[in-house]
Design brief:
This protein is an alpha+beta fold. It folds into 2 domains: 10-47; 51-128, ACT-like. Chain A, domain 2 (Alpha-Beta Plaits), CATH 3.30.70. It has helices at 10-22, 28-47, 64-76, 104-115; strands at 51-60, 81-88, 93-102, 120-128. The chain has a 4-stranded antiparallel beta sheet with strand order 2-3-1-4. The longest helix is centred in the first third of the chain and has 20 residues, at 28-47. The protein is elongated, with a radius of gyration of 19 Å. It binds nickel (II) ion.
Length: 135
């Protein structure tokens, strides 16, 4: 592990310390390491490196055509989908968590396609990393 010094304005450092307290970091170093990792992961998504992530969708399963559509689309993107988990939230609503690994454009395209289907109430894409290039 290497050490380096950082110069900061007093006000900025106070804001940073408040932020890391709110986020429960044990110290500044761990908070800074995490910020760096976040930027590295952002770069992976921008530069088209292989990435990993999760897509979530919330929908009403009583709309039968919707269920078929969601299944068809997932078959079309089978190359990047590594796992799908289906959770019955209540009598009407389902949550699906789709784990993906592959090219960022494909992952975004899948998330956009699923989100745009009529009847999908909410959809998110969590952009993460394969972990290969971050420490
Ligand atoms: Ni269900």
């Amino acid at each position: 592990m290497l050490r380096f010094g950082v110069s900061l304005e007093k006000e900025l450092l106070e804001k940073f310390d408040r932020l890391i307290r709110e986020k429960n970091y044990s110290n500044r170093s761990e908070a800074i390491r995490d910020l760096i990792r976040q930027e590295l992961v952002k770069k992976e998504w921008l530069e088209g490196k292989e990435v990993a992530g999760a897509i979530t969708v919330i929908y009403n399963h009583h709309r039968r055509q919707l269920v078929d559509k969601l299944t068809d689309i997932q078959h079309d993107f089978q190359k990047i989908i590594i796992s799908t988990q289906h959770i019955h939230l209540d009598h009407d609503n389902c949550l699906e968590i789709i784990a993906v690994k592959g090219m960022p454009e494909e992952a975004k395209k899948l998330a956009d396609t699923l989100r745009s289907i009529k009847g999908v109430k909410h959809g998110t894409l969590s952009m993460s990393s394969t972990g290969m290039d971050i420490e």
